[in-house]
Amino acid sequence: MTGSLFKGNFWSSDILSSIGYETIIQHLNNGRKNCKEFEDFLKERASIEEKYGKDLLSLSRKKPCGQSETNTLKRALDVFKLQVDSVAQSHIQLAQTLREEARKMEEFREKQKLQRKKTEIIMDAAHKQKSLQFKKTMEAKKNYEQKCRDKDEAEQAVHRSANVVNPKQQEKLFVKLATSKTAVEDSDKAYMLHINTLDKVREEWQSEHIKACEVFETQERERINFFRNALWLHMNQLSQQCVTSDNMYEEVRKSLEMCSIEKDIEYFVNQRKTGQAPPAPIVYENFYCPQKNATPPGKATGPDLARRRLLPIPKSLPDDPDYSLLDNYSLIYQ
């Protein structure tokens, strides 16, 4: 494994480059965004749980469900409605819990943001100072190199004028050469001063970069740990909700185990029975020979019904005007 931690893996050979720092900052920004997304997820889930709980509560309290049942099944249905009501309340409570977890995530994000801000201000200043000093050093170098070229030209001019008879012209060239040498010395000192200053600035920036890497790595470790724990807790809360709901549903199952088909049927019979005797058979009644105290059709006749005597068979006489015999059939004149 090469390097170690943030401070060993986010450098660049270019003194003006801040790609390592920018890479870390981008990663931290992405992490903060991920926390915000989970925070929003919790809030949305809370809204879903709250809506579900309220809808379930409304269903439990307003929608009839076996309201005409009796006895043991009625008691089971009462438990069922009560437990559904409790499940609805538990979902509403879960919504409040999820909003509280979302609030904690938001507080954590803002806390890290403030901590990061202090380090970012220091690093921004270090980057600017490094860039500014590098620019000044390069300008000093450029000036130094130009003064060196001016001195070289002055020396060449002196050498070319060695055979010149005009003393004033030679004196002028020597003065220019002396001036250029002084300028070179001054520019060289300025250049060296800027180099030393740049090295100090570079060391300060490097030190701040290492500190920033340590702070940012610590923050990232805390963020990952916090995010992981928040997600784990969220799963535990959802699992607990399932356990809570199942415990409530178990109460319904227990009440259903107490239901008795026989008892419910007996209860209905005892409460709503209308009588134990069916209607009597409808008997034939001769219009011409009505029975005394005859029972209306469809009514019970009492204990003597089985011993009721047979109706008399009418006799047909040859001279009877009401009857006539035809092939053993009796015809009534209309």
UniProtKB/TrEMBL annotation:
Keywords: Coiled coil, Cytoplasm, Membrane, Phosphoprotein. It is found in: Cytoplasm; Membrane. Its main location: cytoplasm. InterPro entries: AH/BAR_dom_sf (IPR027267), F_BAR_dom (IPR031160), FCH_dom (IPR001060), PSTPIP2_F-BAR (IPR042694). GO terms for molecular function: actin filament binding. Residues 91-118 form a coiled coil. Residues 4-264 form the F-BAR domain. Pfam families: FCH. It is a peripheral membrane protein. GO terms for cellular component: actin filament; cytosol; plasma membrane. GO terms for biological process: actin filament polymerization. It comes from the Eukaryota. Binds to F-actin. May be involved in regulation of the actin cytoskeleton. This is Proline-serine-threonine phosphatase-interacting protein 2. It comes from Physeter macrocephalus (Sperm whale). The lineage of its organism: Eukaryota, Metazoa, Chordata, Craniata, Vertebrata.
